[in-house]
Amino acid sequence: MSLDDLDRLLAGDGPTRSTGTIRLGEMPGGSAIDVPYTLVRGEPGSTVWVMAARDGDEVHASLVAMRLQRALEPEVVRGTLVVMPIGNVPGFGVLSREHPLAPTYLESQMDDRYFDVISERGGCFIDLHSAGVPSDTVDWTLFVDGDETGAAMARAYGSPFVYEHRMGGGEGPDPGLLDGALFVRLSQAGVPSILIEAGGGLPPPPATVDRAFAGVWNVLRTLGTIGEEPESTPEPHVLHGFRIVTPSRGGFFEDGVAPGDEVEVGQRLATIVDAHGEIVEEVLAPVGGTVLTIPVNPAAGTGTWAYEIGW
Known about the structure:
Elements: H1 3-11, E1 16-26, E2 32-41, E3 43-52, H2 59-71, E4 78-84, H3 89-93, H4 109-119, E5 124-129, E6 135-137, E7 140-144, H5 148-157, E8 161-165, H6 182-188, E9 193-197, H7 206-222, E10 237-239, E11 242-245, E12 251-254, E13 262-263, E14 268-273, E15 279-284, E16 289-295, E17 299-300, E18 307-310
Parallel strand pairs: 3-4, 3-5, 5-9, 7-8, 8-10
Antiparallel strand pairs: 1-2, 2-4, 6-16, 7-9, 11-18, 12-14, 12-17, 13-16, 14-15, 16-18
């Protein structure tokens, strides 16, 4: 199916449940890069887009999106939901955070394509992520400063930590990382958006999938897409900055901090030992705050994305 098919579904009348694919391009051998989606339309209303596994190793997010697809029926939906459970199809096939053609394709063209598809058709956007295979994360949700609907969506999801992104507010090895993120670009283009981080490591705990599904369902209630009253959620701890922390030496992590730990500047996050078992580095916190992400794979190379701290 093509975008014309998607547009016909979006413009149609009456309840429907349909499946299709969005063609993003081709691999070198000619195989198509087709992103699967399920579209569910009920009563007249706005459109909500849900994407998972934009980073191809984030299987937790795909499980949440697939469960959402199964739960949605036209009779409970107001408006239209488009669920894409595997945003980065080639990367997902090899459980890689990157598209196999990166950086020529991953870094710009794939997101540009998604940006055009969603921004031209409007609605709201839910970007389902996780820490992927090598890491674990706290339950946290991101939205963009000034996006009032996005803020309401983030709070409805119910994470204990909510990150309010401000342009140019990043620090560390990749300070502009979030400035160019798809959810940020869409939010600035008038499509209210959030990014959800739903666990990490393997295997995905069923409780993590249950929690994320319940959170997304409450977001849909809040948007009026599901005809149920939203559940109240506790007031979150709002973060306004984050820092990626990487080791300068390669080896193995030992005695690391846990997700959700509070750390102070200079506090030890982990010890790096080399292949001889000798301590070669103590990874120290460059800022104080909450540990958001940790590595679950103890093998570390120089510059490995290891910890995230938010404050």
